[in-house]
Amino acid sequence: MNRTLFALLCVTLVAADVGGGAGATGPASRAASAFDHTFESIDGGKLELAHYRGKVLLVVNTASFCGFTPQYDGLQKLWDKYESKGLVVIGVPSNDFGAQEPKAEADIKEFCQGAFGITFPLTAKYGVSGADAHPFYRWVVGALGANAAPRWNFHKVLIARDGKAVATFGSSTAPMSGPLTQAIDRELAAKP
């Protein structure tokens, strides 16, 4: 009897390790690249990351009522400076941290465009942490480890031209800071 229970336990643990058990990220763990993910656009419709294949992506979870909200200005400057070179900045509004994004999508868009002149793509509002995180964010954690998970608003994820997660930058890293712009320059210089 004990051998049967032991064998059953081993089979269960192996199945969990393959991707079906606790801690697995589900379908997102099987994604080969960022380009396998889709968001809903803030305007409705799909925002497929595959549309940006061959470009460098900077995906940032955002919030309207955060101490880091002024970073929208720096993100727009990054977009203005690097868009023609192949960078796509994508804002992902989220209410995960401090309930600092309680607005509906239409209000978020109006705020971003009015207060900061945002022209880069914005998604609908999504969870970015924990069990309710969008599959993209679960994939990033699977690719780069637990420290890649957003811990606050304005966490930045850098994606290479081939769709691989390259690095993350915490909330306190300003968009136009040396470490972030140097990493963007390196990825833009890499061959697609």
Describe this structure in words.
- The radius of gyration is 18 Å and the shape is globular.
- The chain has helices at residues 2-20, 71-82, 105-116, 135-144, 178-189, and strands spanning 38-40, 46-48, 56-62, 87-93, 156-159, 165-169.
- It starts with a helix and ends with a helix.
- The longest helix has 19 residues, at 2-20.
- Mean pLDDT is 87; it is low at 1-29.
- Strands 4-3-5-6 form a four-stranded mixed sheet, with helices on both faces. Strands 1-2 form a two-stranded antiparallel sheet.
- The chain has five helices and six strands.
- The protein has 192 residues and is of the alpha+beta class.
- The protein has a single domain, classed as Glutaredoxin (3-Layer(aba) Sandwich), CATH 3.40.30.
* Helix count, DSSP H or I runs of 4 or more residues: 5
The gyration radius over C-alpha positions equals: 18 Å
- What is the CATH first-level class name? Alpha Beta
Low-confidence stretches: 1-29
What does the average pLDDT come to? 87
CATH superfamily, by name, is: Glutaredoxin
Shape: globular
Query: What's the CATH architecture?
Result: 3-Layer(aba) Sandwich
Distance between the termini: 57 Å
Major sheet: 4 strands, mixed
Q: Classify the beta-strand content into a percent band.
A: 15-25%
What name does CATH use for the topology? Glutaredoxin
Q: Report strand order across the widest sheet.
A: 4-3-5-6
Output the structural class.
alpha+beta
Count structural domains: 1
**Total strands:** 6
In helices, the fraction of residues equals: 25-40%
Reading the helices and strands in chain order gives HEEEHEHHEEH
